[in-house]
Design goal:
Structural Genomics Hypothetical 15.5 Kd Protein In mrcA-pckA Intergenic Region, Chain A, 11-stranded mixed beta sheet, 4-stranded antiparallel beta sheet, alpha+beta, Pseudouridine synthase, 305 residues
């Protein structure tokens, strides 16, 4: 089944578009198709039922497409005190809703079970988070003392974090600093001009490679506030490719967001002092295949990252 998005269908959510074309199918079935990797937009599998369709896009349902492989995590480093994983995009760092399943914590325990280890007996303490739609390095403490030590490093901004992202437009090198608030006045997180409000956030942006309509960037966090990179680049006029939340201002200017199967943001490096030995750890996670394919589709060279 293949369809072309017509002018009166522009802006519909992917599930709503399919419902309009296949009214005899129940919502639950259409959403299963999307979540199961059966729906392709311009040849790329899209698993986000809320992704907005654009004029002229080709939407195809391939029932013969292989089922999505169950997500798993790669353990990058582990000892008695900490575990660092390479989290896939689309997986929450911690449960955000009651009974949420398939979080990164769940996947760590699944990995331990595959290794024949007592997963339920081992505690995991959260010391930082990365967005659900962001892939890359994520650390958990395995003891309370390790939790305190790592949390202290994050509060002191001594942890080294490099993110790789693709942002719309011609991004220039910059240090972006603002006061972030949970609600900028329209229900979205964002910056305020009132210095007495919000929390200080500093983001260092370095362009690496010019792409078609976008720029591959290295981003270093001096602070680590919720959605900091996404907000700062969006407010600078360069929302991330694949952004679904901080895209409103960009769209209101008449700009056309680039298509992407995911948010192009990846936590590539993580450096900190081991909580007990104080040895310096410098860990890396390569770009995942879906990021690499999206980068190539924009004319990028994954080797130059």
């Amino acid at each position: 089944m293949k369809y072309t998005v017509l002018p009166d269908e522009v802006g519909r959510a992917l599930a709503g578009f399919l419902r309009g074309r296949l009214p005899e199918r129940p919502w639950s079935e259409l959403k299963r198709w999307i979540a199961g990797g059966k729906v392709f937009v311009d040849g790329m599998v899209i698993e986000d039922e809320g992704a907005r369709v654009r004029a002229g896009q080709e939407i195809e349902v391939r029932m013969a497409a292989p089922r999505r492989v169950e997500r798993s995590v790669r353990i990058v480093f582990e000892d008695s005190q900490i575990v660092v994983i390479d989290k896939p995009a689309g997986v929450s760092s911690v449960p955000y809703e009651a009974r949420e399943q398939g979080t990164a914590i769940d996947l760590v325990r699944d990995a331990w079970r595959r290794l024949k280890r007592p997963a339920t007996a081992q505690a995991l303490f959260v010391v930082h988070r990365i967005d659900k739609e962001t892939s890359g390095l994520l650390a958990y403490a395995k003891t309370k003392s390790a939790e305190r030590a790592l949390a202290g490093q994050f509060r002191a901004h001594s942890v080294e974090r490099l993110y790789i992202c693709v942002a719309h437009g011609d991004v220039r090198a910059a240090t972006i600093e603002s006061q972030l608030v949970p609600d900028r006045g329209d229900g979205l997180r964002g910056s305020t001009r009132r210095p007495e409000q919000g929390k200080r956030a500093v983001t260092h942006v370095e362009p690496v490679q010019r792409l078609r309509g976008a720029t591959l960037c290295h981003v270093r966090l001096e602070t680590g506030k919720t959605h900091q990179i996404r907000i700062h680049l969006a407010e600078a006029g360069h929302p991330l490719v694949g952004e679904k939340v901080y895209i409103r201002d960009f769209a209101e200017r008449g700009a056309e967001p680039l298509a992407s199967p995911r948010l192009l943001l990846h936590a590539a490096t993580l450096g900190f002092l081991h909580p007990t030995t104080e040895a310096r750890l410098a860990l890396e996670a390569p770009l995942p295949p879906d990021f690499v394919e999206a980068l190539k589709s924009l004319g990028g060279d994954p080797a130059r990252r």
